[in-house]
């Protein structure tokens, strides 16, 4: 009889040990999963903080602006649940206030020349995130196409602005052939958009500037350019600068 009790006790002990080992494994697995999730959320939070702070206020279209703030707020709310003792809830509330203020502001901001290099990598990261959300099914095809289209147009816009800025700089240094090259590259990029939006006016503006530069370059190679020719060329460049609003308008159409 005593041997039966011993066997029962051993079986019970083994059962307890197996249960303990199983529970320990499950708890360790959950800790690892929680840690991986925390790290992923923190990385996403850091990325979107960079996007939010790196984009000039009023630059992003409404849909992309809403996406950035929604990701920030949702990520902070998830982190607050995982780490309630940290300050994530207060951060989420602050971004909600910022989002509300951004929606109430109707101002649309144009990039400065020096901001294009800063904004482009952020737009690429934003487009990459939208693509990953579409692949995982968190965004519908219609939503992702809309958002990716906006990212693509903004990237095109910043690229064109970069070439125009380089062209103006080359012109100021009297490097006319280089200026023509940059303006021509900008025009080629616009022409690729012809099937997506009406770029006739913009292409005509760039073509007029290129033609003036080519005339001036030819005049420099031959007789000295007249004062009236130089004034006409300057007027074309000023008009291109004044017409900068078309770039912003195209993105928000």
Topology at a glance:
Layout: H1 2-54, H2 62-82, H3 88-104, H4 116-135, H5 141-172, H6 176-192, H7 200-221, H8 227-242, H9 245-252
Helix pairs in contact: 1-2, 1-4, 2-3, 4-5, 5-6, 5-9, 6-7, 7-8
Brief summary of the model shown:
This protein is mainly α and 253 residues long. The chain has helices spanning 2-54, 62-82, 88-104, 116-135, 141-172, 176-192, 200-221, 227-242, 245-252.
Give the rounded overall mean pLDDT. Answer: 82
What is the H-and-E element order? Answer: HHHHHHHHH
Termini gap: 89 Å
**Beta-strand content:** under 5%
Largest sheet: none
The unreliable regions are 224-230, 243-253
Q: What is the helix tally?
A: 9
Strand runs, count? 0
Characterise the protein shown here.
Residues 216-253 are annotated as: Disordered. Residues 217-227 have a biased composition (Polar residues). The protein is an all-alpha fold and 253 residues long. Helix content is 81%, strand content 0%. It contains 9 helices and no strands. It is elongated, with a radius of gyration of 29 Å.
Q: Keywords, please?
A:
single chain; 253 residues; mainly alpha; 2 domains; 9 helices; elongated; disordered C terminus
């Amino acid at each position: 009889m005593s041997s039966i009790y011993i066997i029962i006790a051993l079986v019970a002990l083994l059962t307890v040990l197996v249960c303990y080992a199983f529970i320990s494994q499950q708890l360790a697995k959950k800790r690892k999963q929680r840690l991986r999730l925390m790290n992923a959320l923190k990385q996403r939070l850091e990325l979107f903080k960079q996007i939010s702070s790196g984009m000039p206020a009023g630059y992003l279209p409404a849909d992309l602006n809403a996406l950035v703030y929604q990701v920030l707020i949702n990520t902070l709310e998830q982190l607050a649940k995982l780490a309630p003792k940290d300050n994530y809830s207060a951060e989420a509330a602050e971004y909600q206030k910022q989002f509300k203020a951004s929606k109430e502001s109707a101002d649309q901001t144009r990039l400065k020349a020096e901001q294009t290099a800063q904004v482009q990598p952020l737009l690429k990261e934003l487009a990459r995130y939208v693509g990953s959300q579409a692949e995982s099914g968190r965004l519908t095809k219609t939503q992702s196409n809309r958002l990716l289209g906006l990212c693509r147009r903004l990237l095109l816009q910043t690229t064109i602005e970069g070439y125009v800025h380089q062209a103006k700089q080359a012109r100021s240094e009297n490097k006319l052939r280089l200026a023509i090259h940059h303006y021509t590259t900008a025009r080629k990029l616009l022409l690729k958009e012809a099937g997506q939006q009406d770029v006739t006016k913009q292409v005509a503006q760039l073509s007029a500037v290129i033609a003036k530069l080519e005339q001036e370059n030819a005049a420099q190679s031959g007789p000295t350019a007249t004062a009236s020719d130089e004034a006409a060329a300057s007027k074309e460049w000023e008009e291109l600068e004044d017409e900068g609003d078309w770039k912003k308008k195209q993105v928000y159409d």
